[in-house]
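Handout, page 2. Input:
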Amino acid sequence: MRRLEHGRRAAIAKAILAASSAAVLFAACSLAGYAAAAASDQDEVPTAVFSDYSHTLVVRGKKNFELRATLAEVYETSKKTVLTDVTFSEYDPDTGKLLSFGKADSAIYHADTKDAEFSGNVRLESKRQDAILQGEYLRWIDKDKRLEGRLDRTIALSRSDGSRVSGAGFEADARRRAFSFRESVEGRIESKTGSAK
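Output:
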């Protein structure tokens, strides 16, 4: 069994970090084939399979990002890695303090586009932005620096002050630091002077 290249592991970690950081950043700024269950084409066999997969990025000698999965399957032909029971954490490289955390039942990293899909019980939380993003499906489109949900799935953004907005067709643009919902939007935003619906 071949070992997963360091470059590909770092790219997977960077894509997941970018997606999770972007998602919680949008929540903080604004509030103050999709399913990933099937790994690949049915005829393709994984090039490499890893159990209890773990990858850590170190910056200036300290942990910056950690990715864990109970299973990682690499498919060279379709250029993707499928991760099961995924957790990821971002740390401040200077203090070691946890900045953000995420989890998903599964994730698919597309090596050719650097896109990533997260499905099943997706939760992204930013400690520094006091924001949580939850849903069943999210996709990171790296070339556009965009995070998107599906029209048939609800995404919820919340903060500890009681603010909560949810809707379908979630889209977030990292370049503009903005997000939107295309359908079924509802929620409540708490401000210092009171709440607004």
